[in-house]
Amino acid sequence: MSILTTIDQGVLTIEFDRLDKKNAITSAMYTQMAEAFAAAAGDDAVRVILIRGKREVFTAGNDLEDFMQRPPRTAEEAAEAPAFRFLREISEAAKPVVAAVSGPAIGIGTTLLLHCDLVYAADSARFSLPFVALGLCPEAASSLLLPRLAGYQRAAEKLLLGEPFDAAHAEQIGLVTRVVPAAELADVALAQARKLATLPASSLRETKRLMKGGDIAAVRTRMAEEGQVFGRLLQSPEAKEAFTAFFEKRKPDFSRFS
Ligand code: COA
C-alpha cells in the first residue's frame, strides 16, 4: 500500500509512502485517500485529518504513467475518476485538515493545500503547478482559488508559466500557514493537529463551514468545469508528447502543435 493511515489521539494521519516514485499518486492511492476521508467523516474517533509526505518529498503529483495508460474516455468518466473523488472529499471535508509539506509538492501536491485549513511547510518545500507544460489545465478549483489568494498576475505566473516557488513565497501569498525548519515539521504539524483534536468538534465544524461560506458551491462548480477540460486535454497530442518526454528524460517539443 502506498498510502499509510493511522488514527491516534483523534488525528487521522494520511501519509504518502511511495518514495521510489517521489510519492507520485496513482488511481489506487487516490481511491484509498478518498475512502479514508469518507470513513473519517462518520468516525467519532477522528477529529482532525493530517496529510503528510516524507521528509524528502511531499508528492510529485499525479502519476504520469497512470495518466498515459488510463486516461478517462468521457467527461463522465473524468468526473468519476479517483482523483476527482478525492478532491471532492477533501474540498468538502467538515473536519479540519492539516498538511505538513516537505520537499517538492507538485501539481495536486500544491493544489490540495488550497483545501487544507492549516498548512505547515518545511523550509525545503518547493511548490509548482506545471499543468500547462504538461498540456493540461488546473484542477482542484485552483483556477478559482489561487488567483483569489495570490492575485491574478501572481497566480498566472504559477498556472500559466508553471514557475516553481519556495516556502517563503508560499507563506507570503497565504498558501502556507507557517514555515518551519525541516527537522521540526513533523512535530509541529502533529502538535497543531492534536491541539485541534482537543477543541470542541462541533464548534470547529461550524467555524470552518462559516469561514468557507458560499465557496463550497463555487468550488464544486469550478472543479466540474476543470474536470471536463482536463479529461479532454489528457487525450491531446500535446499531453502525450509531454508525458512521453518526461519518461524519456528529454524536453518536450510542442512546436508542431498549434
Ligand atoms: N509520475 C510517475 N512517475 C514519477 C513522477 C510522476 N509524477 N515523478 C517522478 N516519478 C518517477 C520517475 O519516473 C523516476 O522513476 P524511475 O526511477 O523508475 O526512473 C522516479 O520517480 C524518480 O524521479 P526522478 O525524476 O528521477 O527524481 P528527481 O529527484 O530527479 O526529480 C521531481 C524529482 C519530483 C522534481 C521529478 O521527478 C518531477 O518533476 N516529476 C514529475 C512532476 C510532475 O510533472 N507531476 C505531474 C503534475 S500534474
Describe the sheet with the most strands. 6 strands, mixed
Looking at the structure, the CATH topology is 2-enoyl-CoA Hydratase, Chain A, domain 1
Q: Which CATH class?
A: Alpha Beta
Give the SSE string: EEHEHHHEEHEEHHEHEHHHH
Strand content: 5-15%
Mean pLDDT: 96
- In total, the number of strands is 9
The N- and C-terminal alpha carbons lie at a distance of 41 Å
**Which structural class matches the secondary elements?**
alpha/beta
| Rg, nearest Å | 18 Å
Helix content: 40-55%
Which ions and ligands are bound to the chains? coenzyme A
Which architecture does the CATH hierarchy give at level 2?
Alpha-Beta Complex
Tally of separate helices? 12
Taken from the alpha-carbon principal axes, the silhouette is: globular
Which descriptors apply to this entry?
47% helix, globular, alpha/beta, single chain, binds coenzyme A, 258 residues, 2-enoyl-CoA Hydratase, Chain A, domain 1, 3-stranded mixed β-sheet
Notes on the structure:
By secondary structure, the chain is an alpha/beta fold. It has a single domain (3-183), classed as 2-enoyl-CoA Hydratase, Chain A, domain 1, CATH 3.90.226. Helices cover 47% and strands 15% of the residues. It is built from twelve helices and nine strands. The chain has helices at 27-41, 64-69, 75-79, 82-91, 108-111, 142-150, 152-159, 167-173, 185-198, 201-212, 215-233, 237-247, and strands at residues 3-8, 11-16, 48-52, 97-101, 104-106, 118-122, 126-128, 165-166, 178-180. The strands form two sheets. The protein has a six-stranded mixed β-sheet, sandwiched between helices. Strand 2 (11-16), helix 1 and strand 3 form a beta-alpha-beta unit. Helix 1 (27-41) packs parallel to helix 4 (82-91) and helix 6 crosses helix 11 (215-233). The longest helix has 19 residues, at 215-233. The radius of gyration is 18 Å and the shape is globular. The structure holds coenzyme A. Coenzyme A (COA) binds next to helix 2 and strand 5.
